[in-house]
Recover the amino acids of this structure.
């Protein structure tokens, strides 16, 4: 998510501002508990006796067991695709949406859950049959008429409407979900905000394909992850923008932005299509900030291997966010990084690097967040070396001298998920690994990690195992000292 120099301080400022403005609510306690949707199950015909036992299933778990956020995600199924058909109604600050979820049970399911925060659910169907629901906190429990059979694809359609309510987990504002200033709308979902605007299996271990069908006022533009595949004018004059993300994506990276935007398309030297969206009055600043993206893609392909998705670019919201966020194929920026010079350019490199580290390879749990941020910080140092001749070791040495970082990046706690140690000491851990492994084996690790775990989630233990495989060394001492130990080790070398 955000680049190293920004998140802690500015994030808190943003949180304070949001609290002062009444934008951040206290999550579950003020989530409305909707009454179950009453549906009548068709009467079963029991005119014959049969020896076949009635199909029975289990209740899907209400969480995937994340050590930091146990309520995130759900057990018992795997989502293949989300189709989010959403109308933005700025006069009401509301959304009116139908999300279709294609999922496959991994066990026979009697009931199962989705994550959804607030909003009024008017109906849920499972394979076309209306299904009763119950709601509690962020859990939307669905009780289909028939047991869902393991391995058989199932279609769930959730129809809902309401004013999305941002949430806060711990002291981090970044997971707040849906945001609006009245006209413009955008989402900031890492780690837990996706459920504020669509029903989801909201954990990075269940990636899926996404399509967005976004209907907005005629004078607004809607952008989302992936490629614009169609747009149309509705009978009432509104515009519908259809975006499709063709590669599996974690739920928190699903992103839409609605606003007064222009879309600019270019191509990287590698041939990768690039598209940026920004308010027209910020065109010059955006073109300056993102002007070296194509070069960065080429540089990082040399270091990390092929860019993992079909397209890349940025969207600028007309607000000083205090951070940036690496939404898949469409990183989110605020106006505060326009004109920010080197800090802005480093942030552009940082969010681009996340497409390999964090997006193509997701963290297996939120405790592994340093895998996202350590690699992205190290990538900033790579860019400084390749573009400006400042050796990586020099950047690392400066970072090491900058603070004590006396918290283990491998266990920052769920209240301070994005604290500086996750970024800086995370990057330093990779530098220490490069010193221990040797340059050749470490460069192989940088390339192999996004290849081997592409479209999957991976853990700190997976990284250690791969590093040991590639180097033939026991690297436990490096991980123990740099990732799991509290005290900052001396600078390696
Ligand atoms: Zn980041």
């Amino acid at each position: 998510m955000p680049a190293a120099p920004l998140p802690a301080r500015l994030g808190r400022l943003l949180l304070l501002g949001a609290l002062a403005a009444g934008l951040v609510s206290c999550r579950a306690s003020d989530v409305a508990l909707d009454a179950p949707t009453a549906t009548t199950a068709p009467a079963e015909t029991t005119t014959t006796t049969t020896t076949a036992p009635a199909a029975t299933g289990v209740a899907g778990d209400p969480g995937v067991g994340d050590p930091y956020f146990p309520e995130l995600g759900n057990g018992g199924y795997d989502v293949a695709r989300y189709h989010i058909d959403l109308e933005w109604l700025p006069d009401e600050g509301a959304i009116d949406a139908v999300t279709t979820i294609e999922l496959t049970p991994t066990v026979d399911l009697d009931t199962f859950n989705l994550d959804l925060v607030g909003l009024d659910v008017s109906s849920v169907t499972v394979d076309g049959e209306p299904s009763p629901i119950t709601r509690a906190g962020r859990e939307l429990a669905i009780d289909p008429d028939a047991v869902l059979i393991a391995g058989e694809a199932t279609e769930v359609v959730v129809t809902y409407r309401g004013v999305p309510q941002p949430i806060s987990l711990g002291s981090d504002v970044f997971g707040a979900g849906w945001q609006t200033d009245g006209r413009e709308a955008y989402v900031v979902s890492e780690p837990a905000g996706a459920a504020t605007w669509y029903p989801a299996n909201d954990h990075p271990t269940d990636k899926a394909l996404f399509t967005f069908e976004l209907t907005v006022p005629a004078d607004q533009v809607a952008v989302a992850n992936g490629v614009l595949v169609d747009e149309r004018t509705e009978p009432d004059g509104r515009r519908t923008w259809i975006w499709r993300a063709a590669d599996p994506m974690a739920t928190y990276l699903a992103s839409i932005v609605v606003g007064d935007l222009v879309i600019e398309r270019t191509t990287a030297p590698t041939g990768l299509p690039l598209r940026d969206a920004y308010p027209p009055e910020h065109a010059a600043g955006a073109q300056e900030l993102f002007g070296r993206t194509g070069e960065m893609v080429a540089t990082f392909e040399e270091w990390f291997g092929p860019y993992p998705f079909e397209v890349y670019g940025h969207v600028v919201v007309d607000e000083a966010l205090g951070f940036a966020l690496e939404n898949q194929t469409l990183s989110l920026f605020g106006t505060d990084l326009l004109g920010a010079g080197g800090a802005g350019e480093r942030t552009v490199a940082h969010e681009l690097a996340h497409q390999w580290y964090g997006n193509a390879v997701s963290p297996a749990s939120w405790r592994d967040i340093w895998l996202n941020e350590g690699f992205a910080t190290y990538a900033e140092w790579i860019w400084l070396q390749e573009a400006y001749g400042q050796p990586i070791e020099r950047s690392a040495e400066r970072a090491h001298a900058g603070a004590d970082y006396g918290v283990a990046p491998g266990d920052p706690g769920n209240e301070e998920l994005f604290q500086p140690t996750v970024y800086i000491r995370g990057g330093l851990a990779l530098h220490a690994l490069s010193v221990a492994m040797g340059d050749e084996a470490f460069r192989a690790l940088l390339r192999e990690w996004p290849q081997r775990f592409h479209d999957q989630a991976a853990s700190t233990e997976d990284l250690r195992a791969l590093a040991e495989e590639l180097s033939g060394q026991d690297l436990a001492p490096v991980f123990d000292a740099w990732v799991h130990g509290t005290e900052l080790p001396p600078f390696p070398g």
